[in-house]
Write a structure and sequence with these properties.
Elements (H helix, E strand, L loop, with lengths): L7 E2 L9 E7 L7 H13 L2 E5 L2 H4 L8 E4 L5 E4 L4 E5 L8 E7 L5 H14 L4 E10 L8 E6 L2 H9 L3 E2 L8 H11 L4 E9 L8 H15 L6 H18 L3 H13 L8 H4 L1 H6 L24 H4 L5 H5 L1
Parallel strand pairs: 2-7, 2-8, 8-11, 9-10
Antiparallel strand pairs: 1-3, 3-6, 4-5, 6-7, 9-11
C-alpha cells in the first residue's frame, strides 16, 4: 500500500480564494453541530461535489459501516461511508467556500490530512476552518460557548479577538487535530472551533450551536451565509427545551447554576441576583440530579421547529 493518499477531484473549478470548512462526524463532533452547520450551508447556498477519497483506503467497515437502503420495489442499495469535498460559490461574498464533510476516517490519518492540505493548496484556499462540538457542563441558556485551537499565530489572534478561548485539552484526540497539524506544517492558516454542548440535552439537534459556529465562520472569513432561519430555529429549540426542563425543579436549578457559572445568564436575571449570589459564596455544591431526567424524554428534534425546517429540506428549496 502506498504511503500517499489522493483526494481525487473531478475537475479544477475557478474559485475565489476559497475558505475550506471541514467537519467530520465522530469524535470531534459529538453533538453533531459542526457537520450540521456544513449541511445547512450546502442546503441553503447549494454545493457542487468536487471529489472525495476512496472509501476502502480510509474506513474500517466493521467500525464505520455501510448502510443498506431498501427501495419501494423491494431492491436494495448499499451506501458506503465517504469523505467528500464540495464547492459552494458565493458571488456576493469576497470568498467562495470549499466544504469537506463525512464520517471521521478510521485509517491513515496522516496521509489523509496531507491529501486534504494538498488539495486546499492546489485550489488556492486562503484558510481552513474546522468545525466541531463536544458535550460539556454548560447550559443551553444565553449565548453558546465555544472553544478554539489555532494552527498559527495569526489565527490565534483572530480567535482571541472574538473572545474564543484556546482549548487546554490534552489527551486522546480526533482526526481534526491531525488536519490542523498538517495545516501548521504546511503553513496554511487554520483554526478549529468547537461548540460546547449541554450534556443534559443529548439525543436532539442543537441548531443554536451550528448557528454559533457559522457566525464565527462569517467573522473569520468575511462571508455572509444567511443564518436567519438557523438562528430562529435555535431560539425556538432553546425555548422548548427550557419549558421542558422547568418541569423538573431540581434539574432547572442545576441548569441555572451552570449558566451562572459560565456567565450565560442575563445581568438582571432573578436567579443570578438571588439564589446564585448565595450559592456562589458557599462551598462548592454537587447537585444531586441526573444529567437528564430518567422518567421523561426531552422534546425530539421533530417537535423542535419541525426538525429545524430549513436544515435539510426547506433551505435547499429556498437556495
Amino acid at each position: 500500500m502506498s504511503n500517499q493518499l489522493e483526494l481525487t477531484l473531478t475537475g479544477a473549478p475557478a474559485l475565489r480564494a476559497p475558505v475550506l470548512l471541514a467537519a467530520v462526524a465522530g469524535w470531534g463532533d459529538g453533538a453533531v453541530a459542526g457537520t450540521a452547520a456544513i449541511q445547512y450551508v450546502m442546503g441553503k447556498h447549494g454545493a457542487e461535489r468536487l471529489g472525495g477519497f476512496d472509501s476502502d483506503e480510509i474506513y474500517q467497515y466493521t467500525t464505520t459501516r455501510p448502510v443498506t437502503l431498501r427501495r419501494d420495489d423491494g431492491s436494495r442499495d448499499l451506501a458506503w461511508p465517504s469523505l467528500e469535498l464540495h464547492a459552494c460559490r458565493l458571488p456576493d461574498a469576497p470568498h467562495d467556500l470549499l466544504l469537506l464533510l463525512g464520517p471521521e476516517p478510521d485509517l491513515r490519518w496522516r496521509a489523509c490530512a496531507e491529501a486534504i492540505v494538498a488539495v486546499a493548496r492546489r485550489l488556492e484556499a486562503s484558510k481552513v476552518l474546522v468545525l466541531g462540538s463536544y458535550w460539556d457542563q454548560v447550559s443551553h441558556l444565553g449565548q453558546p460557548l465555544l472553544s478554539g485551537r489555532a494552527a498559527d499565530a495569526a489565527m490565534r489572534q483572530a480567535l482571541s479577538a472574538l473572545d474564543i478561548r484556546e482549548s487546554r485539552y490534552q489527551g486522546p484526540t480526533g482526526f481534526t487535530s491531525a488536519l490542523l497539524d498538517a495545516c501548521a506544517r504546511h503553513e496554511l492558516p487554520a483554526a478549529g472551533v468547537s461548540a460546547r454542548a449541554p450534556h443534559y440535552a443529548q439525543g436532539i439537534m442543537h441548531p443554536q450551536l451550528s448557528w454559533a459556529l457559522l457566525r464565527v465562520v462569517e467573522q473569520l472569513s468575511g462571508v455572509r451565509l444567511d443564518l436567519a432561519a438557523l438562528d430562529e430555529a435555535g431560539r425556538e429549540q432553546a425555548r422548548r427545551l427550557t419549558e421542558r426542563i422547568q418541569q423538573e425543579p431540581k434539574l432547572w436549578q442545576y441548569v441555572q447554576m451552570v449558566a451562572a457559572q459560565h456567565g450565560q445568564l442575563a445581568p438582571g436575571d432573578s436567579f443570578q441576583q438571588g439564589l446564585w449570589a448565595t450559592l456562589a459564596a458557599a462551598p462548592e455544591i454537587t447537585p444531586d440530579v441526573p444529567p437528564r431526567p430518567a422518567d421523561a424524554e426531552l422534546p425530539s428534534g421533530a417537535e423542535m421547529v419541525d426538525a429545524v425546517e430549513s436544515f435539510f429540506r426547506g433551505s435547499r428549496r429556498e437556495g
